[in-house]
From TrEMBL:
It comes from Knufia obscura. Keywords: Flavoprotein, FMN, mRNA processing, Oxidoreductase, tRNA processing. Gene3D superfamilies: Aldolase class I. One of its GO terms (molecular function) is tRNA-dihydrouridine20 synthase activity. This is tRNA-dihydrouridine synthase 2. Transmembrane segments: none annotated. Residues 1-43, 403-422, 429-469 are annotated as: Disordered. Residues 1-30 have a biased composition (Polar residues). It comes from the Eukaryota.
């Protein structure tokens, strides 16, 4: 890491933490004397979180090319997106011979952009790791509510990362409804979460010699948070990240820091590293806040999603122009054959929405088209890669998109609607004509006369015709009748 954060080192050797500053919260349980507390030892293949500014776990926004981009701009560690234990268990692991990446996949379902493996099978990639470029700095985050499943899933990726992190902070219903994410903060007063962490420490951390950590949110009172943090720190974890928002707080609400110093102190009392998260805009700000609140480092999510070069300190040149970041992102996306939909999503985050080019890129249907829209097609290497990846992901084939289907359905409905209107119009005209005809017949003098006498002219004509020996009712018979 390029900047210094006061709270300690990330080495594997046990160490003593510096004396913490006074906690502003008086009625929470006090941490043990820090002078006598060693750091929890960092396992041989693990990495300490002390002094680090890291990329936050982000579903969709934390796929492999985003992590490579953050590392390129000097993030110290990168968290992968939360991956639910059940989705990993039962996957097939392969090394992609073209990219060198390790991929965990399932046979294809209806989703697009499936890769064709060398055996000609179509598969959906659930998780992808670039073992050469990220394994020494990758933290795999798991979504779970079961110690057994957590261990089974983590065991698959543990050889290719430096730590397993448990997501206990996601407040979204897709996570909490399944008893995962922020639901773990209160489930059995945090006991289930503690059991999950203990199982991971004993059965994955020790076996693979990597660290286990957890990411939590604030509970509503310092007392509750304090009790939970103490409980979690006793499980053998090496790090804890605190997202400085409570469970009901929305992302747009400013992060709150009141409990932060206390949490840092509790972590230190157990020898556990503490990262802070929430409204951290850059490396320099992470360093400043960590020093101010006595924690060990910072984690950045949305600011890095919008521009990953926030990991560069001002002294290293600071944030780069979006065009430079987007070009580098596309290089990584092509190198690792990233899913096209995910690449487009990330581009929508990295490009300023106000730029006209944003609209053009959002309409592109292939990597080649994106390079053209961004005027990067004169880069021969990138163009060649784009052609290959387009072919691999079938993006070069004419494709019926959802919006095409929508348009076609709309046109068919419109045609049906118009035909209906025309049919009704015709029926109405016919009806009107019939009415008119009836009216005309009703008002003819002959009808008036005969009807006045109680017989229709047709019946009279028939009688007359019979009398005259005619077969049918003709003009002549009518004349007779009249
Ligand atoms: C698109 C997106 C996806 C996220 N996915 C995860 C996730 O998978 N796991 C997790 O623990 N937090 C997730 N978060 C929360 C972030 O890691 C982070 O805690 C939160 O955004 C606050 O940090 P910030 O203020 O820097 O954005 C996600 C946030 C965003 C914006």
């Amino acid at each position: 890491m390029s900047t210094n954060i006061a709270a300690g080192n990330g080495s594997n050797t046990p160490n003593t933490t510096p004396a913490p500053s006074q906690s502003p919260t008086s009625n929470v349980s006090r941490p043990a004397s820090p002078a006598t507390v060693p750091h929890v030892p960092i396992p041989r293949r693990g990495v300490g979180y002390r002094g680090k500014v890291v990329l936050a776990p982000m579903v969709r926004s934390g796929e492999l090319p985003s992590r490579l981009l953050a590392l390129y701009y000097k993030a110290d560690l990168v968290w992968g997106p939360e991956t639910v234990d059940r989705s990993m268990i039962g996957t097939i692991q392969r090394t992609n011979s073209r990219t060198g990446c390790i991929e965990w996949s399932r046979p294809q379902n209806k989703h697009a952009n499936s890769l064709v493996t060398e055996d000609g099978e179509k598969e959906n990639v659930i998780y992808r790791i670039d073992s050469k470029r990220e394994s020494d700095r990758l933290v795999f985050q798991i979504g779970t509510n079961s110690p057994e499943r957590a261990v089974a899933a983590a065991d698959l990726v543990a050889p290719y990362c430096v730590a397993i992190d448990v997501n206990a902070g996601c407040p979204k219903s897709f996570s909490t409804d399944g008893g995962m994410g922020a639901a773990l903060l209160t489930e059995q007063n945090g006991d289930l979460l503690a059991r999950i962490l203990t199982a991971l420490v004993n059965e994955v951390g020790q076996k693979h010699e990597i660290g286990i950590s957890v990411k939590i949110r604030l509970l509503s009172t310092p007392e509750e948070t304090s009790a939970l943090v103490h409980k979690l720190c006793k499980t053998g974890i090496t790090g804890l990240t605190i997202h400085c928002r409570t469970r009901p707080m929305r992302p747009r609400e400013r992060a709150i820091r009141e409990q932060l110093r206390m949490i840092g102190e509790i972590c230190h009392s157990h020898g556990v590293a503490c990262l802070m998260n929430g409204d951290v805009a850059s490396r320099d700000e992470a360093v400043r806040l960590a020093q101010e609140y006595g924690v060990d480092g910072g984690m950045i999510a949305t600011a890095a999603e919008a521009n990953s070069s926030v990991f560069l300190s001002e002294s290293e040149g600071g944030k780069k122009h979006w065009r430079e970041v987007v070009t580098q992102y596309l290089r990584f996306a092509l190198e690792v054959e990233n899913k096209f939909g995910n690449t487009k999503f990330l581009l929508s985050q990295l490009m300023p929405g106000k730029e006209a080019i944003y609209q053009r890129v959002s309409q592109c249907r292939s990597y080649t088209a994106i390079l053209q829209a961004l005027e990067l097609n004169n880069d021969v290497t990138m163009s060649e890669m784009a052609k290959n990846v387009d072919s691999l992901l079938h993006l070069d084939e004419p494709k019926v998109s959802k919006s095409d289907v929508k348009k076609a359905n709309k046109a068919a409905n419109r045609a049906k609607h118009e035909a209906n209107i025309a049919r009704k119009k015709r029926a109405a005209e016919e009806f009107m004509q019939a009415q008119q005809h009836k009216r005309e017949r009703r008002t003819s003098p002959l009808r008036e006369q005969t009807e006045a006498r109680g017989r229709s002219p047709e019946r009279k004509a028939e009688i007359a015709a019979d009398n005259a020996g005619f077969e049918g009712v003709g003009q002549g018979a009518l004349q007779v009748a009249v």
